[in-house]
Amino acid sequence: MYLTKAQFITQNSFEGAFIIGVNTEMALVLDNEFLESGSKIILEQNSSLELIIIQDKNSQNIAYRILQKKNSRLKVFVITSSKNCNLQILQEATEANASFELFGISFNLATSSSTIDLQSLIKQPNCDINIVFNNTIAGSAKCNFSGIVNISKNAQNANVHLVNKNLLLSDNCKINSKPILQIFNPNVKAKHAATTGFLKDKELIYLQSRGLTKERASKILVQAFNQQIINKLNIICFRDRFNQILNQNG
Amino acid sequence: MMLNISHLSVAFENKEILSNLELGIESGKIYILMGPNGSGKSTLAQVLAGNPKFKVTSGQIQYQPHSENLNLLEQTPDQRSLNGIFTSFQEPVEIAGIKVVTFLKEILKNRKAQDSKKFLSKLKTLQQELKLEANFYLRDLNSGLSGGQKKKLELLQMLMLEPTLAILDEIDSGLDVDALKLVSKHIQNYLSQDRSIVIITHNTDILKFIKPDRILVLIQGKIVAHGDVKLAKQIQKNGFKQFID
Question: Could you report the predicted ipTM of this complex, rounded to two decimals?
């Protein structure tokens, strides 16, 4: 079960923002129907939002700015397989003790050219940021991934984890990965990593030796690569939706 | 003869590993293939599995499961498996993101029809018999398992797939004495008139629990000796040095 946005979001006409009220917990699912590009989402104190973005039909640009106030919790799941996707999420922790998690999957197939731009700005103390984004790139597709976490001078005790994993399925595809930490306070924990590689031969031969064709083995390995992200979805019914997209694109 | 290998030479990264190898495997028998480290035992297992990293530079492998006669070198790895060859890996590959149960269902899908009730029942029986933890099938494939558990999972796959020819590469490594006894019992019981088993090892502990029909010694890519279980005792006493020029 998930709520529709009308049940839990109020639209502030002055700011053009969606506001998640104080002490409110909610889920917002954008399944090929998106908020207007450039929309602002504000999480008030002690609020919690699980935002699920699914894009597998059209390549509408997505650009959201999300502001988090004290003790707010934001979890974002993104899966995109549309051609030429442009996804931008700008998150700001404007008050202390905010937590932000983002788990993303993108498929870039055939001649697709996509841009994924994730930015997190931590302005206040004791914030936790965890970003894990997987890109699968095939054919002659291109993907530009940028993940930037800026820890400002007042953001002591920030705990930041930024990981970008890229799986290349052809010799002609391209990934440009930029995981960046900008740290202006010495009392923080922050780590970032990026990996890029092809399917592993030893994994392929292991699966083939059990009777799976090379094509089927490859598909299973692509699914396995992304499954760990899907398993983090708390709303079980959307795991099926994500798996459906995985099956279509793996 | 279930498997007939003749004049087989194999190279890995331009280095010859197997050299003009001759070997015949008969139905209904257990073979122990022994040899020191680097003698080519695992290479042979991988060649039989169809691993393209190992280049067959000459020779033939004829495989006769039942009444068919197949040129194994013309078959893809998956075709070999579907035709009844199973190779357990010395180092089973860890794949996070695939649950054991999902994997087993997938590899059984292309084979004889099995209803899910029977599948689960067999899986549960084997889990208990092999003393694997109750929910092991919900874990990711080989991920976070001990060496012994991985070997048990390899054996479990063999017992689920029911191959005609099983090549078990160091199935005995990483097992404690009780686990070795248990695994050996299952291997011995699996043998039947129309099945063959080749166990690759470099120590003789497994011979306490398995009765092999033939011991083969592979040194520098060639079979240099073969015989009955007395040969293994001789190796236990004198090592492999006696076979090296």
Answer: 0.96
